[in-house]
Amino acid sequence: MVVxxxxxxxxxSEILALKWSDFDFEDGTLMITRxxxxxxIGRVKTDYSEDEMPLHPVFAEILIAWRAxxxxxxxxxxxxxxxxxxxxHASVLQGDVLVPTGKxxxxxxxxxxxxxxxYRSMLDACGAPVGVQQKLMRHAQVSTTMxxxxxxxxxxxxxxxxxxxxxxxxxxxxxxxPRRTSA
Length: 183
Known about the structure:
It is elongated, with a radius of gyration of 20 Å. The protein has 183 residues and is mainly alpha-helical. The chain contains eight helices and five strands, in the order H-H-E-E-E-E-E-H-H-H-H-H-H.
């Protein structure tokens, strides 16, 4: 679930409602058509959320490997709840798995939406145009997309360095890392 959240930036409601029939591994696409809230299946959050997503071949191979191990379910769910055969409650997974795991790795408030924000940050870092980011995140307005994510320090350093070189073009560019102080 986390790999899907990181690679596609889907909402947890969309991840939990995925069916294997939503995937076209031959064409390398995934169709997002439904979501689940409190284990009730329904439409996606907005009309704009319903869309086709690309599947990179490396990512598709991971999904295909999961499909071979995935417990069968009557609903053809990608992540069936082993106790019910239906879909999971997002809050159960977050409280029982995500939050404790986050604390173990030093992330105090890890939640499902954290991955959506991280996805936007990664799209930014790889240079994806804002319009493409909007489409991949399936937001109706680009202004919503712009509220997500945070720039990585490496990206901030790169942009800052470019501005300094514009302002101080005759100065020798320093490439050394900032001094670290011991605590």
